Amino acid sequence: MLCIDELGPLAVKTYPGEEWHQGEHRATFEPDYGRRGKLWVHGAFEPATGKATILTSPGRDSVSHIRLLEQVMRAFPADRWLLIEDNLSIHASREVRLALASRPEIQIQFLPKYACWLNLIEPWWKQLRSLALKGRRFETLDDLTQALHDGLDYWDKHCHPYTWKKRPQVQVKILGGFGVSHRLNNLVT
């Protein structure tokens, strides 16, 4: 099972580092409005192993998505692939459906609308941003692309399986159990 998504657009600019603090030793940086270019990051994340792959492109389009699918097949060799994706229009475009028709070993599972938190690549994007962008200034698209690939290389050398930390809700049998759930000793209606 692989989770697929897009990140971006990412601009060629300065990305803040440390968190803001009150007092005289707070982190500061000069605002940088970029305007030196932007790119999209298309990625695939395997929660069972923690391995990932990315593809950078100037746009979020069907051609880039097909290139990512081809890269996934090379990076994660298997007899069959189950890909988890959101409902972005490029994921079900005519070009992508045509490419998938020639690959019956790829099965796509679309997430429900407004449920992006079910796609486990979302928390991984935060890790990639931290490894590749945090506290850095980029002057060119090549610098930004290289930093993203360096961050991915570091992650793949130190990756670990993803563990879901959210605990399931337990239904309480109050008022017949309608509309009442119990989470960490608090009642939520």
Written description of the protein model:
The chain is globular. The strands form two sheets. Strands 3-2-1-4-5 form a five-stranded mixed beta sheet, sandwiched between helices. A three-stranded antiparallel beta sheet has the order 6-7-8, with no helix packed on it. The longest helix has 17 residues, at 141-157. It has a single domain (2-188), classed as Nucleotidyltransferase, domain 5 (2-Layer Sandwich), CATH 3.30.420.10. It is of the alpha/beta class and 189 residues long. The protein starts with a strand and ends with a strand. It has helices at residues 62-75, 94-101, 121-132, 141-157, and strands at residues 2-11, 38-45, 52-57, 81-85, 106-110, 170-171, 181-183, 186-188. β2 and β3 form a beta hairpin.
What would a concise description of this structure say?
It contains four helices and eight strands. By secondary structure, it is of the alpha/beta class.
